Every structure is written in structure tokens, then in C-alpha cells.
């Protein structure tokens, strides 16, 4: 059961909560779900186009969306000093106008806020982005995984498992490689597991990255 279901969905309502908070009738559920995805993509595209970091690191942990009748509140959790932090007021206003223009919202307002993550390398999404940049720069996958695990050990995590699948290092036959440090009890529903899945495009093809981070366990 450990790897046959999404660890986040498996723990919803116990140790995990949703990243979107709203209510909708069944016939409008899919439309609201697609709207959330478009909002997140719009924000990530804006950061990708306007970031001023040479490394190309976005550093977005996750994006929370809270919807009311006439207001949509978006909270962006970031880990590094990127374009969103350098001039928050100006960037937030421009980002809000871009989102409102994209959705042609007349009767609904958008409110965007930014929250800094204290220990960014404790977030699997940021860690996956770091590994992806290393692999794109032709760094050995073993070296990239070991460095990612070292960065995670600086946080308060109790265990981490990283897995890469695909044509690793350009080999003809696709395979799966993984590393683990500490405990990662995926079968225990009390265990607070943070998980992220991402894909990256390299000159050899598409690689998949999975990261499990064991934070702590509820008594």
C-alpha cells in the first residue's frame, strides 16, 4: 500500500489539508478545479518570465486558493528571494491585474498575498526543482540526489526518499534509481509525509522525479 496511492490524498483529513478551499455544486466542480489550475499556471508563468535569478530557480513551495462569492484569495508560499520578494507591492498589483485580465472577472476580486518559507529545502516541490536544474546542467544524478538529501538534512525532517525514472544519464534503457536517508513510513497514516511528483525535459527525453519527505508522526 505504500506506493500504490498518492501519499497526500491518502492522508487528507488526518495530517494533510487541501490547497484549495471552496464550495461548488457538482455541475460546477470541474470548472472550478480547472480555474484553480489556470490561476496556479498563470502565477508560475509570470515568475518564469520575470525572475531575475541567474540559476532559473522559481522557489515556489505551493499556492493556496480560497474562494468566496465575490473574492478569490491567493496565497503564494515561496522559499527564496526571487522576483516576488524584491518589490512585493508592485509585483503583487501587476500579478493581480494579469490574473483578472486572464479570467475577465467583473463581479469578483482577486487578492494575492506572499508568504516566505523559513526552511525551503524542507518542501519537496522546491527540492524537485533543484534536482531538475542539476540534471539539466548535466550533473551526475547520484551527485544531484546526494546533494539534495544533504540540503534536506539541514531542516527538521526525519527522513527523505528521492526517486528518478527514465533514460537517466542518456542510457538507452530506461530505469528507476532511488536514494533514501532516515525513515519514510508510507504505510502509517499518522505519519506526516510531504510528497511531490514532477517531470523534466532533458536532451535525452522526459525524466520523472518523486520525493517523499517524512516530517514527524502524530501520537
Question: Would you give an account of this structure?
Answer:
GO terms for molecular function: RNA binding; structural constituent of ribosome. Its main location: plastid. Belongs to the universal ribosomal protein uS3 family. The protein has 219 residues and is of the alpha/beta class. It has two domains: 9-116, GMP Synthetase, Chain A, domain 3, CATH 3.30.300.20; 120-217, Ribosomal protein S3, C-terminal domain (Ribosomal protein S3 C-terminal domain, 2-Layer Sandwich), CATH 3.30.1140.32. It is 34% helix and 31% strand. The chain has six helices and eight strands. The strands form two sheets. It has a four-stranded mixed β-sheet. Strands 6-5-8-7 form a four-stranded antiparallel β-sheet, with helices on one face. α2 crosses α4 (88-103) and α5 packs antiparallel against α6 (141-153). The protein is globular and about 50 Å long. The two termini are 21 Å apart. The relative contact order is 0.14.
Sum up the structure in keywords.
GMP Synthetase, Chain A, domain 3, 219 residues, alpha/beta, 8 strands, globular, four-stranded mixed beta sheet
Secondary structure blueprint with pairings:
Layout: H1 7-10, E1 20-21, H2 26-50, E2 60-67, E3 71-78, H3 83-86, H4 88-103, E4 109-116, H5 124-136, H6 141-153, E5 159-166, E6 175-182, E7 191-202, E8 205-217
Parallel strand pairs: 1-2, 3-4
Antiparallel strand pairs: 2-3, 5-6, 5-8, 7-8
Helix pairs in contact: 2-4, 5-6
**What share of the residues lie within helices?**
25-40%
Number of domains: 2
Shape estimate: globular
CATH class of the largest domain: Alpha Beta
What string, H for helix and E for strand, traces the elements in order? HEHEEHHEHHEEEE
Global mean pLDDT = 85
* Annotation field: number of helices: 6
SS-based class: alpha/beta
Termini gap: 21 Å
* Strand numbers in spatial order across the main sheet: 1-2-3-4
- Characterize the main sheet: 4 strands, mixed
Do you know the CATH topology of the largest domain? GMP Synthetase, Chain A, domain 3
- Rg measurement, Å: 19 Å
Report the β-strand fraction as a percent range: 25-35%
CATH architecture of the largest domain: 2-Layer Sandwich
Low-confidence stretches: none
Give me the CATH superfamily of the largest domain: K homology (KH) domain
Number of E-state strands: 8
Domain Small ribosomal subunit protein uS3 C-terminal: 131-213
Keywords: Chloroplast, Plastid, Ribonucleoprotein, Ribosomal protein
Main location: plastid
Subunit structure: Part of the 30S ribosomal subunit.
Amino acid at each position: 500500500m505504500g506506493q500504490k496511492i498518492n501519499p497526500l490524498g491518502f492522508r487528507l483529513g488526518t495530517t494533510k489539508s487541501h490547497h484549495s478551499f471552496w464550495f461548488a455544486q457538482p455541475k460546477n466542480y470541474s470548472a472550478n478545479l480547472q480555474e484553480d489550475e489556470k490561476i496556479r499556471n498563470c502565477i508560475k508563468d509570470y515568475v518564469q518570465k520575470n525572475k531575475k535569478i541567474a540559476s532559473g530557480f522559481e522557489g515556489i513551495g505551493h499556492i493556496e486558493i480560497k474562494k468566496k462569492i465575490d473574492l478569490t484569495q491567493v496565497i503564494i508560499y515561496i522559499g527564496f528571494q526571487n522576483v516576488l520578494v524584491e518589490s512585493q507591492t508592485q509585483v503583487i498589483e501587476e500579478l493581480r491585474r494579469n490574473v483578472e485580465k486572464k479570467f475577465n472577472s467583473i463581479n469578483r476580486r482577486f487578492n494575492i498575498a506572499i508568504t516566505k518559507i523559513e526552511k525551503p529545502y524542507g518542501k519537496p516541490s522546491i527540492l524537485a526543482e533543484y534536482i531538475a536544474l542539476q540534471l539539466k546542467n548535466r550533473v551526475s544524478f547520484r551527485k544531484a540526489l546526494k546533494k539534495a538529501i544533504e540540503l534536506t538534512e539541514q531542516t527538521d525532517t526525519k527522513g527523505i526518499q528521492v526517486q528518478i525514472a527514465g533514460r537517466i544519464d542518456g542510457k538507452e534503457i530506461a530505469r528507476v534509481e532511488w536514494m533514501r536517508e532516515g525513515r519514510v513510513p508510507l504505510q502509517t497514516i499518522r505519519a506526516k509525509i510531504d510528497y511531490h511528483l514532477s517531470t523534466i525535459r532533458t536532451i535525452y527525453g522526459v525524466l520523472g522525479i518523486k520525493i517523499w519527505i517524512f516530517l514527524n508522526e502524530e501520537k
